[in-house]
Amino acid sequence: MSDSAIAALNSLLRGTSIDDHEEALKLANSAIKAAKGNPTDLTTAQHTRVVALVKLDRFDDALRAIAEGGAALDKTCVIEKAYALYKTGELEAAEQLLESTRINTRGMKHLAAQVAYRAEKFDKAAELYQEMAENVEDAMYGEENDLRINILATYSQLETQGKGWAVSEEHKKLSRDELEVFETAYNAACGSIAQGDFAKAAFLFKRARDLCEASEDLGEEDKKSELAPIIVQQAYVATKLGNLEDAARFHEEVVLSDISDASTKAIAQSNALILKSESNPFMAQRLAYTLPVVTGNDRLFEEQATIFCRNKYIIELQAQKFAGVKSKTAKVLSKETEPTISSSKCDLGALNAAAASELQTGKAALRRILPLLETRPIDVGLLLTAIQLYIQLQNPAQALNLLEAFFKRLEAATAPGNNADVRFAPGLVALAVALYRQQGRHSAVRSELAKAASHWQSKQKAASNGDSLLREAGIELLRSTHPSDLSTAGEAFTHLVAAQPDDRIATAGLIASFATSDFAKVQPYLGALSPVEKLTAGVDVSALLDAGVAALPVVSHQQQQGKKRAREDDGETTGEQQKQQQQAAKKQRRKRKLPKNYDPTKQPDPERWLPLRDRSSYRPKGRKGKKRAQEATQGGYVKGDEETLELAGGAGSLKVEKANPAGSGGGGSGGGGAKKKKKGKK
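and the corresponding C-alpha cells:
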C-alpha cells in the first residue's frame, strides 16, 4: 500500500500540469503516512503538501506543516515559507528569511521585491525590479511585461512618499506600447495622482478602463475584479477635480461584491461617505463607525491609512464633534518628541487647530490657536495653520515672525535628531523665501537659500529630497554679484551634476557660477551645452543691427487729450520742425480771467473778501437799520425806561431798568397775560 501511494504521488508530480490542488494534497497526505521509514520520500511528500496548501491559499496551515517537518523541510521550503509569511502579514520575518539565503534565485528576487513593496520599502523594491529588468538572460517568457507593471507601481509609491527624486526622468517616461496595457496605464495614473496632476490621472484612468473593458484575455468575472479599483480611483480623481456629479456617478457604478481586495473595498466606502457628508454630515459620521478595519496583508499603506483617518476626523468636524477630535488628535501629537514634516502628523496638527477653533477663521481662530502653539512649539501643522490665518488677515509680517521663531528654536536645539532636516525642509524654506520676497528683503532670501543649500550638500546621498531646493537656490544665488554667493551656487550645481549628469540646467548653472572665477572647472562641461552657432542659426545679425533697438513710442500730452497732429507724407521731419513740435508740446501757462467791467485804474475794494454783513457799507433792511439789528440780539441788553435808586447811608445812587407792570409781556416770553393782537382784514 505504501508503494502504491508513493507511486501515485510520483505519477502526479510527473504530470505536465497540476490543476487539482485538493487531489495533490490528498495524495501527499497519504504518501506522508506511507513513507515514514524513508526520509527522501517523506521530504518529497511533505514538500508537496506545503506547495498544495500554498496553492489553496491555506498559508497558516502551510507554516504549521513546515514547522512539523523539521529542519530538513525548513531548509527545502525556504521560498514557500517566505511566501506564506508574506501573505500572512509577517513581513519582517519574511524579509529576514530571504536575506539569510542571500536571495540567489530569480524567484527569490521577485518575492523579496514583493515583500519590500508591501513593507513600504519602495526604494529597495525598485532596485530589485530594475536589476531583474536589466538582466534578461534568465528571464521567463512574458516576464518583461510583468516587471514593467511592477516597476511603474513602485515608482508611483515613491512619488507618494515624496521620493520622486529617486527615479530618473528617463524611467518615468511611458512608451506607446505601455499605454496599450491597462495595468501600466493604471499605475501611471496613480503616479500622476502622487504628482498632483489630476487631469492627466483622469485621462489615464479612462484609458485603463477602456483597455480593460476591451480586453479579450479576461473573462467577465476577471474584468469586474479588475475594473472595480479603476472606477474607485476615477471617483477619487473626480472629487479632487471638483466634479462631484461625476464622482457620485462613479460611486454608483462600484459594486462592492466585485472587489476582492479588502483595502480597496474600505477605501471605496470611505470615499463615498465624503460625498454624503456634504448633504448629511451626521448620518455620514454614524456610517463612518461601521467601516471595516483592515488588518493582515491587506492592510492599508501608511499614506492610505492617513487619508482614511483624516476623512473620519473631517466628517466628525462637520458633525460638530469638536471636543472628540481635539482630544484624539492631541493624544497622538503628545507622543511626538521631535519635529516632523510627515503629512500624517502635519494633518493632525491642522485638524487639532480646526477643532480647537471650532472651524472659526480670522482673529477669532488665532485667539484659540496661538496658546496651543506655546504648548506644542514643534508642531509644524499647527504652525502652518497659524501662518495661513495671518496671511488671510493680510498680516505677513506676523506670519514671518512666527516662522523665524520656529527656525530659531530648531537651530538652538542641542538634542540629536532630524531638527536640521526639518529646519531646511524645502517646503518651509520656500515659505520663508516667499514671505521675504513679499517684504522686499532680497538679501534675506539669498541668505536663507545659501544656508539651506549648504545643509543639503552635506548629505551623503548622491540624490535626496533637497535636490529641488539646491536647484532653486543656485538659480537665485546666480543673480547676486557677490563672490561668496556665486561660489555657493557653484557648489550646489556641482552636487546636482554629480547626482544627475544629464541635468542640463545644473550643468548650465555650474558653468555660469565658475565662468569668471575658475574656468578650469567649467571647461569639461562646455561640450554638454548647445554651441552658440546652433542657437544663433537662422538669425540675421545684420538685419537686427539695421533695424536698431525697438522702443516704445512716447505719447505726448496733446495726444493723451485726444488731439491729433498732422504728419508729413514721407514721414521725415527736419530739425526745425522737430523744434516746433517740442515747443508746441510744452505746457503753456493759461491766461488769467478778469471780472466783467474791470477797470485797472480804479482801486479795488479792500473789503471785497469779507462777508456782506461784516462790511462797513452793509445796511440791513428795515426802518431802524443798523440800530435795530444791534438791539434785536437774543439775550442781549434791551434799553428801556430807567429809574434812579438811592443807596443806603448816602453811598450814592444807581441807575436800573424800570420794572414792567404785572401781566405785561416782556423780553421774549409769551406770558399768558399778554394781550393778543387781532388780525386785521386784508
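(Above: one complete record from the training split.) The beta strands are 642-646, 653-657.
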